[in-house]
Write a structure and sequence with these properties.
The protein is mainly α. The chain is built from 10 helices and no strands. Helix 3 crosses helix 6 and helix 6 packs across helix 8. The protein is globular and about 45 Å long. The N terminus is likely disordered.
Length: about 180
């Protein structure tokens, strides 16, 4: 949240920071006090891991993609609204985060249908999200495997984007490893 003196709630000025650094700060502010389901782990750890997967495992270093990965849950899981996000991060990042956000009144099926026509960057972030969720508490694994199978299908093998294909391969291998093990 931007304060009157140009700083955010934590007191750090946002000027001079990269887009993904501003996104990390915003995500940390909005997820403050929340924990990952079934754990005492601060929730901000999840979006940070998603961004790390996008960068380090899938090989995408686009700052806007990393920013959207860091913010992928703010509309769905926090008090952040679309106008606030758009003003803070711009239209591309806020649109990508909207693609990744479930409509509270919408069906899960409709959500997955929308993701199939989303930009490749959004689908790659969703695959990183699914991959990270596979490392959560064991009691959630069956449901998360189901979601991961839907996410891997977002990487249609006919897509020419190599980073999307890399994400699909990595997520597919992890699903296979967990199903065999």
């Amino acid at each position: 949240m931007k304060m009157n003196d140009g700083s955010n709630r934590s007191g750090a000025a946002s000027e001079g920071f990269t887009v993904w650094q501003r996104a990390a700060n915003l995500a940390a502010e909005f997820h403050e006090g929340s924990c990952c389901p079934g754990t005492e782990t601060p929730y901000i750890i999840h979006p940070c891991r998603v961004a790390l997967l996008v960068s380090s495992v899938f090989g995408c270093d686009d700052p806007e993609v990393l920013a959207a990965a860091l913010l992928h849950d703010v509309l769905e899981k926090t008090r952040c609204d679309r106008p606030t996000l758009a003003v803070a991060m711009g239209s591309t990042i806020s649109e990508w985060v909207e693609w990744l956000s479930k409509d509270p009144q919408g069906s899960k099926e409709r959500y997955w249908e929308r993701l199939h026509v989303a930009p490749w960057q959004v689908r790659m972030i969703k695959m990183a999200d699914a991959l990270d969720h596979l490392n959560g508490p064991a009691e959630y694994l069956a449901d998360r495997l189901k979601a991961a199978r839907k996410a891997v299908a977002l990487g249609d093998s006919s897509s020419p984007e190599p980073l999307l294909q890399r994400a699909r391969e990595v997520l597919g291998r992890e699903i296979e490893r967990l199903e065999i093990g």
